[in-house]
Amino acid sequence: MINFASEFKIMEYKSFLYDDIKANVQTTRFTTGKGPDELHAIINLIPDLSSFEVQLQHIYDAEKRLLKEDRMENMTLVMKRYFLSDVANQKPCMNPENKCACSFIQQPPLNGTKIGVWLYYIDNAEIHNDNGSIVLEHNGYTHIWNLGMQSTEGGSYGQTRTLLEEYEDKLESMGANIAENCIRTWFFVRDVDFQYTPMVAARRENFEFQGLTKDTHFIASTGICGVPDSTKAIIQFGAYAIKGLKQGQLQHIHGRSHLNPTHEYGVTFERGTTVHYGDRNHVIISGTASINNKGEVMYPGDVIKQTHRMWENVQVLLNEAGADYENVMQLIVYLRDIADFSTVKPMFDEKFPNLPKIFTLAPVCRPQWLIEMECVALTKADYPDFRTF
Questions:
Q1: pLDDT by residue (tens digit) across 139-157?
Q2: Structural contact between residues 361 and 338, judged by C-beta atoms closer than 8 angstroms
Q3: From the candidate CATH numbers 3.40.50.2000, 3.40.50.720, 1.10.1740.10, 3.30.1330.40, the one assigned to the domain spanning 128-244
């Protein structure tokens, strides 16, 4: 069950600086007045020389303080992702997270700290844990999050097959499946330059078995370097699915003027996906880099030009979905080279001063790509044939 919020601004940006715990919290709140508020937050710490245990406590304290801010008292934390600098050693120090969907991934924050976090809240949501799946049932929809899934047997090909089969089983137990219900996936790959290709092959084979081909559709996704906490795990998998959508509520975004279909270079994901609700649109943009509509890397070796082309590509995808950067709720920026952070961060701060964002060290799936980003955008809508969110 979700109670509706009162009418406020459609998009509301806030920033909270908690000096004593060296935490900077940026939030974006979305309100339509017909359905529940949604809020994305990213917590970045101010760099210092403190231990991981101290920085972790600062993150926990910042999360608690955020919930005491104005109009946060009824917010339910639905999912979170921790970005860590040394996941194998740091994860055992952290609290178990079983009340929301959660993942822990080694993608070091590039501001010099050991930890950052992305959080997603829904107003007055009632969620429950169903055998590891975080489930929200409301207004005829069932939202299902599965994050942090890992396998420890075999190589990246075998682990990907196992993880997708386990995910299929989880969905099947709830009367769902990948082809009809999965909206978004993440594949975090240890040593992406070496392990990505077998992962792609396993995903393609699984999708073909599920009926997902270039003639049907794929799923919005990010596939990028990320180290799971288990030293035997090569792949960490996460996904989001929805039951209860009507025909026409799902739209795949292509951006053909700037990007090519991914199957043309052997991978199987959608550039983006829009979910239409009666009162809003969820626009989910996959990991996007500096690429053209022939599948070629644009501006090899030049992170500034790659950043501008990446922004242009994302703009095209957003526009195709009836959105723009002013509708974006959060940004995750992945860099291949830590030395590029000092160049790229001021560019983002100037272009997106209010947006919650985090920069992490995470090589992209092609060595020539120096930068990638993903985002979520929300726009107000009025579709009388569809139920509100």
A1: 999 999 999 999 999 999 9
A2: yes
A3: 3.30.1330.40
